[in-house]
Design a protein that fits this description.
Layout: H1 5-15, E1 20-23, E2 28-30, H2 31-48, E3 55-60, H3 66-75, E4 79-84, H4 89-99, E5 103-106, E6 108-111, E7 126-132, E8 140-145, H5 146-160, E9 168-170, H6 177-188, E10 193-195, H7 201-209, E11 215-218, H8 220-226, E12 238-241, H9 248-257, E13 262-267, E14 277-279, H10 284-287, E15 293-294, E16 299-302, E17 308-312, E18 319-320, H11 324-330, E19 331-332, E20 335-344, E21 350-355, E22 360-362, E23 365-367, H12 369-376, E24 382-392, E25 396-405, H13 413-420, E26 432-435, H14 449-462
Parallel strand pairs: 1-10, 3-4, 3-5, 9-10, 11-12, 12-13, 25-26
Antiparallel strand pairs: 1-2, 5-6, 7-8, 8-18, 13-14, 14-15, 16-17, 17-20, 19-20, 20-21, 22-23, 24-25
Length: 463
């Protein structure tokens, strides 16, 4: 039987006890110190009465203490639900109520309910629940298997050649599956994870050039910012792009700025266990702008009628939490429907040609327009709201919100944004708020996201 990440980490920690495991720029922990903190956290959860497979909220913000917190929950037999520390209290309460979660682990165990959560068969193999935006507007809880996640790391290792003792600079948030797998793969290879919660361009560029890190997983938005640093950079490790499409032009610019580094690209979804397609660094020049080729064990097809890419993976999710109907709707038989439209390039590589869902991909985060609209519609000033994404050179896509105010009401974009900040994580707040007399409409007269996006793109083209 495949060992879990927690079990594998325990073995590595014994062998590499004195070696640096994680540093956030303020706090550094050796493998032995991570183990000690994980044991302490697990003991506290057991004393609090944690049941097997019970979800535990773990606040994270890319600090060193986040790593032993994950391990502590797993070690105690629970399921990790990572939530960013900046999540508004109202949104956090909705989440914990939905989970039926009794405990939060943040150094100490915080108990916020005495009622045990309902028994869920879906959680009996689970290790992590990751909440992702859904097309319905309500975030979906993706339930991931503890053993499948561990086995998927072995496949990624084989495809990417992660070396023993290689350090990784992780600016990706640990609420993000990309940030999680890159962190665990580094640690299980005996390398150190250099966490950064805030992406400071000058700091990151300097850390890469210092020679102390060999791996840099990043969303393309991060790479765009790094290109603001003039000159040829010295980093000679591996850059791995993911989380959102990497345009070929951007990839070529990165390779020109970092001529000594390798650049690879990955594609995958949280639901499929991440990392299903790879453009390996040695082949990047040939396959730039495509998804590359499926990893070992991944089966895929493109639907003849819809052109939607479907993926079957032995490491895919167990299902959506408490939503069997959504789970069924997401599948075509045993294949996951990605919502992405694709074809096969002349080179034989798979490439994306569009997206069938309305999700906005901003700086690698997938965001539901309906969730943002619902937050703004809670304002006493607002009578209608429409959200879309539009191309943005810094973020991949920027969030645009059109607002119609109630008759007799006056409110600025800043006031509306401040009100919504009580209900939305910071990265979901609109980049641009347009106060209009009526929402953009399509040919049927209904509010139309496509029409709104086309209007924005036309204005951008006119400068």
């Amino acid at each position: 039987m495949t060992e879990t990440i927690e079990q594998k980490f325990r073995a590595v920690a014994r062998a590499e006890a004195s070696r640096l495991a994680v540093s956030d720029g303020q706090t550094s922990l050796s493998f032995a110190e991570v183990e000690k903190r994980a044991d302490q956290g697990a003991r506290k959860l057991a004393e609090a009465g944690l049941l097997g497979w019970e979800p535990v909220v773990v606040p994270v913000s890319n600090i060193a203490a986040d790593i032993p917190a994950f391990l502590a929950v797993w070690r105690a037999g629970g399921v990790v639900v990572p939530v960013h520390r900046s999540t508004p209290k109202a949104a956090l309460k909705i989440l914990t109520d939905r989970l039926g979660s009794r405990f939060t682990l943040e150094g100490e165990v915080q108990t916020h309910s005495s009622t045990p959560p309902p028994e869920r068969d879906l959680l009996r193999e689970a290790g992590t629940i990751i909440f992702t935006s859904g097309s319905t507007g309500e975030p979906k809880g993706v339930v991931l298997s503890a053993t499948r996640a561990s086995a998927k790391l072995e496949m990624i290792q084989a495809m990417c050649g992660w070396g023993a003792g290689e350090n990784a600079l992780i600016g990706l948030q640990l609420t993000f599956s990309f940030g999680q797998w890159a962190t665990w793969l580094t640690l299980l290879n005996g390398g150190a994870v250099l966490l950064r919660g805030r992406f400071d361009v000058a700091e990151v560029a300097g850390m890469l050039d210092s020679g102390g890190t060999q791996r840099f997983p990043a969303v393309p938005t991060m790479l765009r910012h790094l290109l603001e640093q003039d000159g040829i950079r010295d980093f000679a490790g591996q850059i791995m792009a993911g989380g959102e499409p990497l345009p070929a032009a951007l990839g070529h610019r990165v390779r020109a700025a970092y001529p000594h580094a390798g650049l690879g690209d990955i594609y995958g979804l949280t639901e499929t266990g991440t990392c299903d397609f790879f453009v390996q660094a040695a082949k990047y020049a040939k396959f730039a702008g495509t998804l590359g080729f499926a990893g070992d064990g991944i089966d895929w097809r493109i639907d003849d009628a819809t052109k939607e890419l479907e993926i079957r993976s032995p490491w895919q999710m167990l299902g959506y939490l408490d939503a069997p109907e959504l789970t069924r709707a997401a599948m075509n038989g045993d294949r996951f429907r990605t919502g992405d439209l694709a074809d096969v390039a002349p080179s034989g590589a798979v490439r994306l040609i569009g997206r069938s869902k309305d999700l906005i991909v901003r700086s690698g985060n997938k965001i539901s327009p309906l969730e943002i609209e619902a937050a703004f519609l809670q304002s006493e000033h607002v009578t209608a709201a429409l959200v879309t994404g539009a191309p943005d050179p810094e973020r991949g896509e920027a969030i645009h919100l059109a607002i119609v105010l109630r008759v007799g009401r006056e409110a600025t974009a800043e006031v509306l944004r401040d009100q919504a900040a009580d209900h939305l994580e910071r990265y979901k707040l609109p980049d641009h708020i347009h106060i209009v007399d009526e929402l953009p409409a399509g040919s049927t007269g209904k509010a139309d996201r496509g029409a709104f996006r086309r209007l924005i793109e036309a204005n951008q083209a006119q400068g």
